[in-house]
Design goal:
Blueprint: H1 2-10, H2 17-21, H3 26-32, H4 38-54, H5 62-84, H6 91-96, E1 104-106, H7 107-123, H8 141-150, E2 154-157, E3 180-183, H9 188-191
Antiparallel strand pairs: 1-3, 2-3
Length: 196
């Protein structure tokens, strides 16, 4: 399916796709950046092909793939946060506050985010009314973390050295101040995370 999509978009034969059209390790990069879902891999490959065409390239370069991954990441941030906007308006603005953060961080960073966001709301900063619901978590940053975990924006780590995993609300890991968190790896390029 991926071959057909690329062949159509770039007007090349299917035999040329993996043997010169895409740079080495392109499939691995596309697959690892697409949450392991075939439809997302196809979408990302299509974005890479579109980027190559826009740049006037006759084949997809590593730079085209990097640009496509960043674009795809930003699109996924908008889509995932869009699914939660009905319950948590302005959640994308909250996620965008994580731009430039380390990919993994201690609970204290969540506490700081809640505190700063709460102050913005209290001071009436422009646009802060869009996420006024955060005020309800001013004294409960752990509850705020749970919102981001349930939305799969954040993943949980039992300790600093543990691997990050998706939070399972049916069998939740106890949330304590010594837990570490990671931003979903698919969002890393869109947020420009440090260490990603």
């Amino acid at each position: 399916m991926l071959d057909h999509r690329i062949a159509f978009k770039l007007r090349v034969s299917q035999g040329d796709i993996w043997g010169g059209l895409l740079p080495e390790n392109a499939f691995r990069e596309i697959w690892n950046s697409s949450n392991g879902r075939p439809r997302e891999a196809i979408r990302l490959a299509t974005l890479a092909a579109t980027t190559a065409v826009e740049e006037g390239h006759t084949k997809i370069t590593s730079g085209d793939i990097i640009s496509a991954i960043r674009r795809f990441s930003n699109e996924r941030i908008r889509e995932v946060t869009g699914e939660w906007t009905y319950q948590f308006p302005g959640i994308e603005l909250i996620v965008r506050k994580m731009e430039g953060w380390p990919k993994e961080f201690a609970f204290s960073q969540i506490e700081e985010l809640v505190e700063i966001t709460h102050l913005e709301i209290q001071c009436g900063d422009p646009g802060s009314n869009l996420y006024s619901w955060v005020t309800g978590f001013a004294g409960n940053p752990m509850g705020f973390a749970r919102v981001l975990l349930n939305a799969e924006i954040l993943w949980i780590k039992r300790s600093r050295t543990d691997d990050a995993t998706v939070f399972d609300p049916l069998r939740p890991v106890e949330l304590t101040k010594d837990r570490w968190f990671a931003i979903h790896p698919m969002f890393a390029p869109g947020l420009g995370l440090v260490g990603a």
